[in-house]
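Q: Here's a chain of 390 amino acids. Please give me its 3D structure as tokens.
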Amino acid sequence: MIRLLIDTTSADGRQEVRGISRYAREYGPWDLHLESRKLLLEQSLDDTGPTPDGVIARITYQSLADRCHRFGSVPIVNLAEVIPDLPWPIVATDADAIAEIAVDHLLTRGYRQVAFCGYNQLNFSQDRRRGVVKSLDRRGMSATIFDEKPAAWPRVDAHEQARLTDWLRSLPPATGVVCCNDWRGLDVLQACARERIDVPGRLGVVGIDDDEVVADAAHVALTSVDIGSFAAGYEAASLLDAWMRGRPPSEPIKRISQGRLNERDSTSALPIDDPIVHEALLAMRNAASMPASIEELVDGLPISRRPFEKRFRAATGRSPYEELLACRLREVERLLIETDLPIAEIAERTRYAYPHHLAVTFKRTHGCTPTRYRRDRQASRTARGLEHRG
């Protein structure tokens, strides 16, 4: 019997359970016992019943850690990197990689500055804040931060609403706001709606966790990062399975870097003043007109290559080649996840001369082959009740 101590009221907790369940169906059978009530209520934990063969837990508070200690030598895999010095191996999503995806998207979309909105005193928010700051440091940029913890978190009280509104008003136009999770993103979108702050024209907003219900709950659908929780659950189950077969994990922590951004209306604008750069960005981001090279792109613009490259970098902070590569790879990702097209046809559609060139570039940027990426992502998508198509 495998006991799952995971709070399923959150999107990431539900995805972790789905990843575990997928592994159990593929390599089981496992007798899974899911704690179905909210684990934040300590009294909901039931210590009765037989001793489990293994446990997968999201240990985010000390009383749950204390209860896990009572299982003694039972193999336990922890899905939360919150409480230090626990004796069990951890499988965790990569906060730095998640932040990089969000920041890269906003800068790619043309937002000239990046801000972060989170909660202080909450570890997951602080981890994601540090990731955003590191991502911007590498680019020679800095972040404006708002991370007040409301007195009645997660409910936002009137005082905190006023402070959040003042902060949003203070941000210059063409600022992208990375929020620590989708609920914080919803706070930001609702404040923008009250104050008539244009989203995505003046501010762009990105959430984290990709909770589809929350993402659709505001006047503008929220762009959000799917952090790879399905893959984390699957990997935790794999580690537990090996441990129960006599092969304990060799590393204290395994980081999952399989995040992917799902773009919605909150970042759909192109806040670029230069009309030629704006036209070039539209061409790059349109799958039907995507050029194979910068030379081909410039052929369709009323400007020569060298002044175009200078204007493009001045407007976006990156070179035209970097932008074109990012656009092509995003389209590759979409086709891998949403279709069953052969890699050769995906390469042709995204203007790679040979499938091998696509495979090499993809592995260098994503750390895995296109085939592996497709398998992992389509499994996650299927578990969420979404179909892919040919």
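Q: Can you summarize the key feature?
A: Confidence is low (pLDDT under 50) at residues 383-390.
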